[in-house]
Sequence to fold (747 residues):
Amino acid sequence: MSALTHVKTIQKNVIPLELRPIKLYCVQAMRSVKYLTLAPAIYILITLVFNLNGAQAAAKQTINIAYLTQELTPPAALSNLDPFIKEKGVIGAELGINDNNTTGEFTGQQFNLKKFIVPIDGNVNDTFVKEISSHFKYLVVNLSAAQLKPLADLPAAKELLLFDVGTSDDSLRNEECNRHVLHLLPSRAMRADALAQYMMKKRWTQWLLVIGTNPEDKLYADAIKRAAKRFNMKIIAEKTWEHTYDARRTAQSDVAVFSQTEDPYDVLVVADEQGQFGEYLDYRTWIPRPVIGTQGLVATPWHKTHEQWGAVQIQHRFLEKAGRWMEEQDYSAYLAVRAIGEAATRTQSNELPKLKDYIFSDSFTLNGYTGTPLSFRAWDGQLRQPILLAAPRSLVAVAPIDGFLHPKTELDTLGYDQPESHCQWNK
Amino acid sequence: MMSTSLKWLLLLSLISTAHAENVFVTLEKDNALAIVDPIEGKLLKTVPVGQRPRGIALSPDNKHLYIATSDDNTIKVFDANTFKELGKLPSGKDPETFALNPAGDKMYVSNEDDSLVTVIDIKSKKVLKQIKVGVEPEGITVSPDNKWLISVSETTNMVHWIDTKKNTIEANTLVDSRPRAASFTADSQQLWVTSEMAGTLLIIDSQSKQILKTVNFDVPGITNDKIQPVGVIIDKDRNKGYVALGPANRVAVINAKTYEVEKVLLVGQRVWNLAFSPDQKRLYTTNGTSNDISLIDLESQTVTKSVGVGTYPWGVVAKP
Fold:
């Protein structure tokens, strides 16, 4: 008998919180009204005690969170192994809401998530202005960098706190930064630095950089070049994969020719964010060399091979809820909602200025199941986080790699540290 | 016919065996239990116990050893002298941490995946109740006066105060981020709780359920995010408490009257759980990633030895 059925037989009339639809929380709240007593004075204290045995009930404080995304067209697939996932992110946010509400049950707070999924031909800014901006203070936004920039610049957006769970764009965290936008995914620079630290540790100092033709691939390559400079690695050659091969040429022969260089190299670094050719490189290079970057050994905030620091539990919870592994956008959306929950619980408030102050304060810590407390960088709104270096079926290392030191936190060895940042909040 | 001196020798060795203290350590990745002689400071032997052993406890009469074998989804009962398996308890899925009541007839298990605490009657091996708690319950302990069962939920950041008579939650204390372990003082007046992500130790008054004191740790040369408190225990006279600081590789010594951190002792890597010797003269630590345990002499407050035990030492208990 599985544990879950075991639970059900014992607690016949209790739905496990995880499986309970959000709207049921109101019913649950009313049902437990007579058990709740919350002395108003306790509200202001961070060290709260919640007595469930009293006679009076306090009304629940509600925190409404909007989630905005747009439907995607399935890209051309290299392989049928990885099915196209229509909505990466939403289920992570839902899991976060469930976790927030479990705490909320004990503290008298109710978290609600309203999802806005704009159709492919729709306009996200319209949806934002018409349905979100005047009703919500907290917005989890899963859009491309090209969509997020104009949305974040709307005057109405400044009245909200935006949690970007869809971009890794470095310009959004530097020149284009906004005080009202927090970034949950690691930037390209953070990912590249994580890879560079590991390559440095392995003394794989000579790199061949292979870049795709999409604009995002160039941005990824820029981050790799920045990391190479930062960690004193040498890019011995830079080649663009032009997608020009035809029926007479196969990946087998093409990659071997393509990967020949004048100078020797230790590792091939690939910049192919959409996965259009990167998977072809491994095992087909002219000389035997590992592939890292967007394929091969990847730098990511979350991976299915990760199971340390309690990660197994959240992997299980997500898998049970979604029927698939957690993707990095899901993880980021989970963290975004949990960050709001943590700030609301600690401040016992739903007011934006209070929560925002708390999120940027030194007291704010978030558990991301990666062994280090997470927090936001005060200079650009980027979430400080470890980066997993993962092969398809094995977690190879976790950056920051041991030995890369920092006076404040080693997490700030990844990406743009305060003195390097080009973000000026008061522009 | 045995000579008199030989008889004496035999008798002596019997006495010394009977009184020799043993330290038991679960080895998460070796599926085994390490048995250490802490006086000699050496590993005596390892015995297989089941898949992924983690939580460990001795019955109050020291006859039975309970080990949570997480991947077998059970808590096994062993003879504490022969290590023969005597039975299994219905712990629910993936048991990690559990606690016994002072009488030793009830066991409370954290079921992390299902957000439950399972109450087991040890004699009949029956589940008496499952109590719904916050997300990812971890630390669990019973007050020495048997009044409170404490369950700590990692993701909900709550300490749940459960009445041991009614098996219902009576109060909740919101604590710092990712609480891990909880331990009562011997007089049941205080509950000490560690918060891994906030890097703090919280001292909570059992009467008011309010936090009396937040203890922060500072280790020279270690950044704050490496200070991740896990295991916590307090001596029976409430003079000193000890906290394992995880990847900071230190055990902090806390004055249990002033709550000052008096000292940090360097132990092995990713120090996890702690146990006193039965006479409370020594402290034992499991060091998760350096595969050893540290032996600490509490009178001189020094680490006297580290003993290699096997892969991923997790839980530790000492048997007189």
In short: The longest strand of chain B covers residues 42-48. The first helix of chain B runs from residue 4 to 19. Chain B touches chain A through 45 residues (CB under 8 Å).
